Amino acid sequence: MKDRFNIFERLDESDHGFDDFEQAIPLMSEEEERELTESVIPESLPILPLKNTVLFPGVVVPITVGRDRSLALVKEAYAGDKIIGVVTQKDEDVEEPEASDLHTVGTMARIIKLIKMPDGSKSIVIQGKSAFEVEEFTQSDPYFKAKVKSYPKEMDIQGVELDASIRNIKETATRIINLSPNIPTEATIAVNNINSPSFLLNFISSNLNVGINKKQELLEIQNFSENLKRVMEFLEQEVQVLDMSEKIRTKVKSDIDDQQREFYLRQQMKAIQEELGEDAEHQEIEKLREKLKTKDLPEHAKTEAEKELRRLEMTPNSSPNYGIIHSYLEWILDLPWNEYSEDKLDLKYAKEVLDEDHYGLEKVKKRIIEYLAVLKLKQDMKAPILCFYGPPGVGKTSLGKSIARALNREFERFSLGGIRDEAEIRGHRRTYIGALPGRIIRSMKKAGKGNPVIMLDEIDKVGADYRGDPTSALLEVLDPEQNDTFSDNYLELEYDLSKVLFIATANSLDTIPAPLRDRMEIIDISGYTLEEKTQIAKKYLIPKQVKENGLKEEQISFHDDAIERIIDQYTRESGVRNLERQVAGVSRGVAAKVAAGEIENFDVKVDDIEEFLGKQKFFSDAAERTTVPGVATGLAWTPYGGDILFIEASVSKGSGKLNITGQLGDVMKESAMLAVSYLKAHSETIGIPEEAFKYWDLHIHVPAGAVPKDGPSAGVSLMSAIASIFTQRKVKGTIALTGEITLRGLVLPVGGIKEKVLAAKRAGITQVLLPKKNEKDVAEIEQDVIGDLKVNYLERMDGVLDLMLEKETMNDPTEYFKVSDAYKNTVSGNGAGSSQVTVNK
Question: Which of 233, 248, 269 is the last residue of a domain?
Answer without folding.
Answer: 269
